[in-house]
Amino acid sequence: MSVSHTGWTAKFLAVVRYEILWNIRKKKFLGMLVVAFALATLSLAGDHIVSAFGGPPVPPRPDFVINANVGLGGFGFFLFAIVTAMNTISAEFESGTIVPLLAKPVSRTTVFFGKLFAAFLTLLATYCFLMIYMTIGGVVVYGPQNNLHLVPLSLLGALFSTLIWISIVLFFGTISRSSLMAALGALGVWLGTTIIGSILAVLAGQGWILTYIPGAGNIGYVGEPPQPVGVSVAVAVSTGTDSIGPNLINYILHPLWEVTYYKIDIGGTPPQWIALYSQSLSSIILTSIAVALVYFIGFVAISWYVFRRAQVTE
């Protein structure tokens, strides 16, 4: 039994090594680091660029690093999922390398989960680089930072957020066996949840639906109702899977926060915000983590099943 376990582990690690070396040969990992560096630098320098072109001076921001979400937003998580997973399975079918790969004494399950784990390691390495770079950059650009011990929670949240999109990209790539369709299918989901979701939340007052789909989620507020920019003192809180990291940090700092959701009444003059309901921050976090796990496990399970049943011809 131990011999069998050792044999499976060796095969699994061989697949992981194969996938990582393939990513290195194709310059995927290097490309991800370059994109990560560019996005993080833009996040760090954005205020200073605006200030250099006549904008207001940039004050110290002691909470910049813990609010930066490793320098990425929802689109950043989606973009990294596309780069990481769009050709993990589909490229093997497109190039024909799936035939010699499956001809080896390795089960399809081992191949599938070995490739998925390699994608996770690639993503983890990239996000660790981002976390370190944003922490050092935040101190240099915006001065001493508060609560730096909570920064790893941003890394955890970013991984959760991106793994959902990786599972969706993997799903479309496995079903279609096309890297292009993997990217386009996931893009369609992202656009649909972002655009349609915003309309539902603001105008129809049905933003609760966004809590149960991947992405930015519904927007609630701690404190007063939302007001025009420069007047509001309310703190915006997102219920979506993209905000797991920041919400975890806010919960550690403010465990008693209550988040209130609103809809806008466009019939008023001026339009009025109408309170709908309130929810504790802890409930928001638990729900978003549960949603992330359900989507990830569900899409990965479907992709694994399809991959096991796929017919391979030379």
Residue windows where pLDDT falls under 50 for at least 5 positions: none
Helix content: 55-70%
Can you write the helix and strand succession as a string?
Answer: HHHHHHHHHEEHEEH
Compute the average pLDDT: 82
Portion in beta strands? 5-15%
Q: Helical region count?
A: 11
What overall geometry do the principal axes of the alpha carbons give? globular
Using only C-alpha atoms, the radius of gyration works out to 22 Å
Domain tally: 1
The span between the termini is 35 Å
Strand order of the largest sheet: 2-1-3-4
Structural class of the secondary structure composition?
Answer: alpha+beta
DSSP E strands, number: 4
**Which sheet architecture does the biggest sheet show?**
4 strands, antiparallel
How would you portray this structure in words?
This protein has 314 residues and is of the alpha+beta class. It has one domain. It has 11 helices and 4 strands. The chain has helices spanning 2-25, 28-52, 64-67, 74-85, 90-95, 98-103, 108-142, 151-176, 179-202, 244-253, 281-309; strands spanning 219-222, 235-238, 258-265, 272-280. Strands 2-1-3-4 form a 4-stranded antiparallel β-sheet. A hairpin with a 6-residue loop joins strand 3 and strand 4 (272-280). Helix 2 (28-52) packs antiparallel against helix 4, helix 2 (28-52) packs parallel to helix 7 (108-142) and helix 4 crosses helix 8 (151-176). The longest helix has 35 residues, at 108-142. The chain is globular and about 65 Å long.
Labels describing this entry:
314 residues; alpha+beta; four-stranded antiparallel sheet; 4 strands; 8% strand
